[in-house]
Specification:
mainly alpha, 5 helices, 68% helix
Length: 125
């Protein structure tokens, strides 16, 4: 009977250590994901390819151009990956990307387009 309170105390210590370890892990993981902002995307590649609505297509295209511009704002000068890119070129590139990747979305496609333009070499204004 004397060992019961000691056992209960050991269980409490173990529980506190488990909670502390779980909390530390949660904080660690939360800080790892804190750098990744939420991006609201108006559609996926299936919609990009299949939409017949000019208004909705314009919405998705406008979103793509805004997303690319946002990536460009965070890009280090003097390189400007978008310097020679027209809206039509961006849309044609996304047409091809979405036909080849129908399960993907506009954010992934936009990021890949930006990376590809950046990889092609420095463009300066």
């Amino acid at each position: 009977m004397v060992s019961l309170p000691v056992r209960r105390g050991a269980d409490q210590v173990l529980r506190v250590k488990t909670i502390a370890a779980a909390s530390a892990l949660a904080l660690c993981c939360a800080s790892a994901f804190a750098d990744k902002p939420t991006v609201i995307v108006p559609g996926d590649c299936g919609l990009w390819v299949k939409t017949k609505s000019p208004a909705y297509r314009d919405t998705m295209s406008g979103w793509l151009l805004g997303y690319l511009s946002g990536l460009s704002m965070r890009h280090e000068p003097p390189n400007d990956p978008l310097a020679d890119l027209s809206p039509e070129q961006a849309n044609l590139w996304m047409d091809k990307f979405c036909r080849e990747n129908p399960l993907s979305n506009l954010q992934i496609g936009g990021s890949r387009l930006f990376s590809e333009l950046d990889r092609l070499g420095p463009r300066t204004k």
